[in-house]
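Title: Prediction job returns without error message
Component: structure pipeline
Severity: low
Priority: P3
Assignee: unassigned

Description:
Job completed but the reporter wants confirmation the result is attached to the right record. Sequence as submitted:
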Amino acid sequence: MNRVLNLEDFDERANDVSNYLCFLRDLEQEKILLSHDGVISKIDTELDKSLKATGFLLLYNLVESTMRNAIQSIFDEMSEKGVAFIQLKKEIKKIILQNVKKNVQESGVNDVVEKIETIFNDIIQSGFNQDKLFSGNVDAKEIKRIAKQYGFSATTDLDTRDGSDLLSIREHRNDLAHGVMSFKDVGRNTSAENLVKISERVIKYLRQILENIDEYLVNKEYLDSE
């Protein structure tokens, strides 16, 4: 299949997260020891907890950035193909018009009037604001909602557990971001080995979602079938 999405960036980001968690696992299992002033020792227990909590932040950032870039690629592809607004399926038109409405409300009428010609010439890109797409709310349920909205598949292999790991990752990320729990508290109840296994499932889940979006773009499933 001819690809539209470039998955190299995702693979690089995912590899960075995997390397961090594997290194942390080896530290925890004492396969790697630390040296300070010539003294060899294992990792401090409290530091280990904080580093594991950081692992949840890295995983969530991977999830959100991956989905944000994936949705951006849908709008980029439509623009690059010169797709007219009238050619789009009804669901996509609705998304774009809702986004344009938000932009009008936030920018003010005067600002939008000055750009009205641009909006009509390129309404697809005018109706998309990547920065406002997600805000700490991405989990499998949200991905499925978006998949249904745009019309791409959210089906993945059984061993991805249907993305169920994303919920705890999102919750841990938000607990840390809002100061509800400390890094030590978040890292206390999991092992680095478990984090590695979670990351493997999450990375596989995200990659398959990207492959589904790629197929959606190749087949131009954003177009009105009529």
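Comment from assignee: result matches the submitted record. The chain has a mean pLDDT of 89.
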